[in-house]
Amino acid sequence: MRGTLGSLLASAAVARAANGANSTTAITADGSNFTLTGDGVSYLFHVDPSSLDLVSDHFGGPATDFTPPANIYAGGWSDGLTNTRREFPDVGRSDYRLPAIHIKHADGDTVSAFTYQSYDITAGKPALPGLPATYGSDSDVSTLTVRMYDNYSDIEAVLSYSIFPKYNAVARSFRISNNGTSNISIERAASFSVDLPNLDLNMIELQGDWAHEMNRVIRPVQYGETGFRSTEGYSSHIHNPFMALISPTTTESSGEAWGFNLVYSGSFATTTERFSHGYIRVLLGLNPLHASIPVAPGDTFQAPEVVAVYSSEGLGGMSRSYHDLYRNHLSRSNHTFQTRPVLLNSWEGLGFDINQTSLDALAQQTADLGIKLFVNDDGWFGKTPYARINDTAGLGDWIPNPDHFPNGLGPYVASVDSFTVANTSEKLQFGIWMEPEMVNPNSTLYTEHPDWVMYQGKHPRTLTRNQLVLNVGMTEVQDFIIQAVSNVINSANIRYIKWDNNRGIHEMPSPAADYEYMLGLYRVIDNLTTTYPDILFEGCASGGGRFDAGLLHYWPQHWTSDNTDAADRLTIQMGTTIMYPPSAMACHVSAIPNGVTMRNISIEYRATVALMCGSFGFELKPVDLSAEERAAIPGILANWELINPIVISGSFYRLALPDDTNWPAAQLVSQDETTAVVFAFQQQATVKPAAPPLRMAALNATAMYRSNAFNGTYSGATLMNAGLNLPWQVEDYQSMLIYLYKQ
Ligand code: DGJ
Q: What residue stretches are annotated with the Glycosyl hydrolase family 36 N-terminal domain (predicted)?
């Protein structure tokens, strides 16, 4: 359907009550008013008839009417557009707040004047050229495109709004086409911009660092700017490209929450700006420091998309919408809804001590424990003088070290494949680590192509972990990576690849190089995941440094953190689940004392923490396990068999957070709602007070449940309202796995 400002009354779609909207009735438009309606969300904006600017009306719970805006005193300097709630704020025409779009014209000026032209409504959702994005069929999602034009500069902006009614989610992006005769550059591009009314809101973000990812931080949305960004070139450990806004009374299970998540893996920035009238502008998109993206006459710039979710059922409701949306309509991996094999990764056990003898021994121990996938992490490649025997050499030279694999990977992997996994008839599978976007100066690749790295002519090429970043924006580099990874995959029976990335980007040839890099990276990954759909890819960036929705479009899972200490990991994992599904987290049981924290925690607790993730495994030398630890392994694997299918497709509830209580807990409910599993923890031994009863969530109140935790049956109502008193001992770091089976 298509409409113009003239067709004011030609309703483009039949409006329906907010509840029960389906994708074909989710958008109504008449060229003046626009309404997107989900099962529990409405998003309203309109065209101001005099300025032809787009005005934000409502983003929140169901609403069907356009009501008059707040009465703002328009005296003094603050008049015109700065007093309105804008959908697509540009620069230089009386709006003093930060813009969503900032364009530099050839003559150096940066004033824009976008005005409304026309709209389209289509069933489904078009792909974003070159970028990862949510997708869906005509019955899942529908899309409103709104065309704006700057007549002074001959530039078109096409805004895209896609609504997934079932998930209360709106995906937004825009593209800019340069129809003029001279070059322009995009200085700022916030894919999502909305002006909320004068509400009392708090901002939640996930802040951290290496081995300290995804810590929940909350602060009030104050006057001026409240925000954060990544300038690492990647989404980063420091801040994730996600923010939630919540009402002051919002909890895990009640109250309003708005989530905003950028589907992109490069530098980003997000800001709220509360102006003098109290209106709150929300912006999320590229980091302006890594923009200045040139758009030549006739060319188009495409902004990545932001997925915004509204929930009236607290942060938990928001999280579950993201989890379901991302599993069904973001991830396109074959593995997303498949259980993942238990694995053993060589990194924490062997480090760089990689040779056929050490690997054979570890692979044999892996199979003997009943573990199904053996992963050779770092240290298998490069040739003297660039052999990867430590982290100073070899990255870029993706050939097996001939000293250790004289016949290449093929025969070696075939020998691993001959091991039988204990207590099964299955053969051990093999996976391998790569870090394809990086190069050590000590490598054949760098010697041959020193100009393939990210560098700025006159500046030194600064190293981190002795390595440089390849400029993946270059087509030659993209083709090299595709070939190098394909060669490894084709050389042996590889079932899994861990794709690592261990430094941020420093010197760039231009600010736009980050965006160009991301387009190149997505081209590479799109090619490889399409060519090899059965390989299980796991993203990694020194742990969770690139755990983002962009990569989850292609890969089903990501290594969550290099910190495998179960106490810290619980916080990291609970943080990660704010918007990413637990099925996307990779989590391992490692040896004690822990390599990062030196903490000693029982194997049961370590396993209970790791079992809440889609990809569960071990990262230790089985021969070093104590007799007690070894005896626990069969029970852990039996729990994995029961839990992994529920993690993969079930619903996740954070019952209590480790930073709020000594007794954190989480719960998964199977998709068919017949089984729930509760992960319960006591962090520190306490003499007094007693632990509060553990109250479950999302059970059927009138159904009866049996459990491994009590005799007989209890009703769902009892378990949710009275809860269970668990028999904690006066001991640090205890855990329980409680299964509830609906009768
Ligand atoms: C960083 C990753 O996060 C680790 O798991 C491991 O793969 C090392 N790199 C290997 O160098």
A: 57-294
CA dist 174 and 190 (Å) reads 9
Alpha carbon distance 556, 334 (integer Å)? 8
Sign of the C-alpha dihedral, residues 580, 582, 584, 590? positive
pLDDT tier, 139 (very low <50, low <70, confident <90, very high otherwise): very high
Which one of the listed residues 95, 397, 500, 568 is annotated catalytic?
500
What residues does ligand 1 touch, defined as CB less than 6 Å away? 347, 377-378, 433, 500, 502, 540, 542-543, 559, 562
10 Å CB burial of residue 533 (0-12, 13-18, 19+) is exposed
Burial of 166 per CB tally in 10 Å (0-12, 13-18, 19+): buried
Active site residue 397: no
| Ligand 1 atom, smallest distance to 540 CA | 3
pLDDT surpasses 70 at 4? no
Report residue 5 CA to chain centroid gap.
Answer: 38
pLDDT in tens, 162-204: 999 999 999 999 999 999 999 999 999 999 999 999 999 999 9
Nearest CA to ligand 1 atom 6: 347
**Long-range contacts of 354-361, Cβ-Cβ distance < 8 Å, separation of 24 or more:** 354/378, 354/379, 354/380, 354/401, 354/404, 355/403, 355/404, 356/404, 356/405, 356/412, 359/412, 359/416, 360/415, 360/416, 361/623
For ligand 1, atom 1, which residue shows the shortest CA distance?
A: 542
pLDDT digits (tens, 9 = 90+) for 286-312: 999 999 999 999 999 999 999 999 999
What pLDDT, on a 0 to 100 scale, did the predictor assign at position 79?
A: 86
Q: Provide the residue ranges of all domains of the chain, joining segments of one domain with +.
A: 2-64+102-329, 343-649, 675-742
Query: Of 95, 562, 565, 568, which one is the catalytic site residue?
Result: 562
Tell me whether residue 500 is one of the annotated catalytic residues.
yes
441: helix, coil or strand? coil
CATH class of 2-64+102-329: mainly beta
CA of 284 to the centre of ligand 1 (A): 30
> Residue 22: which pLDDT band, with cuts at 50, 70 and 90?
low
Mean of pLDDT values over 723-741: 98
Residues 608/632, Cβ–Cβ less than 8 Å:
no
Q: How far apart are CA 141 and CA 454, in angstroms?
A: 39
For residue 2, pLDDT beyond 70: no
The DSSP annotation for 57-95 comes to EEEES---S--PPP-----TT--GGGGS-BSS--SSSS-
Q: What is the mean pLDDT of residues 719-741?
A: 98
Q: Which of 287, 422, 290, 307 is nearest to 41 (CA)?
A: 307
Which of 3.30.70.20, 3.40.50.720, 3.20.20.70, 3.30.200.20 is the CATH number of 343-649? 3.20.20.70
Pocket test residue of 540, 546, 560 for ligand 1, highest count of atoms within 8 A of CB? 540
User: What pLDDT is stored for residue 74 in this prediction?
Assistant: 78
pLDDT of residue 19: 41
3-state secondary structure of 417: helix
Helix (H, G, I), strand (E, B) or coil at 304: coil
- Locate all alpha helices (DSSP H) within 369-419, ordered by sequence: 409-417
How high does pLDDT run on average in the chain? 96
Band (24; pLDDT cuts 50, 70, 90): low
Tokens of 322: 């993201």
Rounded distance from Cα 500 to ligand 1 centre (Å): 7
pLDDT at 21: 56
